[in-house]
Design brief:
This protein is mainly alpha-helical. It contains 5 helices and no strands. Helix 1 runs antiparallel to helix 2 (46-68) and helix 4 packs across helix 5 (142-167). The protein starts with a helix and ends with a helix.
């Protein structure tokens, strides 16, 4: 009876110890996953969000494989066989193909009309008068954009005064 208990105890020990050992091996992977999830809870840009999401997916996959004991599957190596017969495209195969259209920036079919503040001779005078600062050619942030907008308004006010005096 004592031998049976000791044998049962040893059997239980051997059965549970590999799973405990596996859990210990998976702890760093779980910690990495939790670290990435903590980083996601903080503020981030859209580009960083995509990167964090991809990293989280990989970390979760690695952790899950470690937990379940399914390692990386080996890829089967197959030889490419050469076809001796010509393949002809049929209407069915062309129907099954997905047509990928380029994304449009606007979700409208209406025409885009750009209206200018000035027309004709006044427009030519405005284009000759307006001096765009070099940093306003491609503003990188909102403060530069605001500066450019205010600069254009002040130049427009000066142009209006000058044009009124010249036309009189």
């Amino acid at each position: 009876m004592v031998q049976l208990k000791s044998l049962l105890l040893i059997a239980v020990f051997f059965i549970t110890s590999p799973t405990l050992e596996a859990k210990k091996r998976c702890k760093p992977l779980l910690a990495k996953l939790q670290n990435i999830q903590a980083m996601q809870r903080h503020g981030y840009s859209a580009k960083q969000g995509l990167s964090l999401r991809n990293r989280e997916d990989k970390a979760r996959k690695n952790w899950w494989q470690c937990e379940n004991g399914s390692g990386k599957k080996k890829k089967k190596t197959t030889k490419k066989s050469q076809r001796k017969t010509a393949s002809y495209s049929t209407e069915k195969s062309s129907v099954n193909r997905k047509i990928i259209k380029a994304g449009t920036p606007f979700k409208t079919s209406n025409t885009i009309v750009i209206k200018s503040k000035y027309q004709g001779e006044k427009k030519r005078a405005w284009l000759a008068f307006y001096q765009q600062p070099t940093r306003c050619q491609r503003p990188k942030n909102l403060s530069v954009f605001a500066f450019c907008s205010e600069n254009k308004q002040t130049q427009r006010a000066g142009f209006e005064q000058k044009y009124r005096h010249e036309s009189k």
